[in-house]
Amino acid sequence: MDIEEIIKRIGIIRTRANLSARALSLLIGKNASYIHLLENKKTSFEPSLSVLLSIISACGSTPEEFFSADINTYQKKQRDS
To answer: Which of 17, 27, 37, 70 pairs with 62 at a CA distance of 20 to 30 A?
Structure first.
């Protein structure tokens, strides 16, 4: 998984959690524009592993879901099991 996919997945779980970029930034103790800048493809910085895990947790997700082969169907597969 490359950094572009990680950034895309951050947007997916943030949207699922119904959090604005600002709200998520503040939840993880970062500057109010941190997530916006991270998701903006014009910038080129990457979150550390600890920040990524904080983002995943703040969005009510798990590392297992975040890094699953298909994040879009992960929850459905878990409910069907």
So the answer is: 37
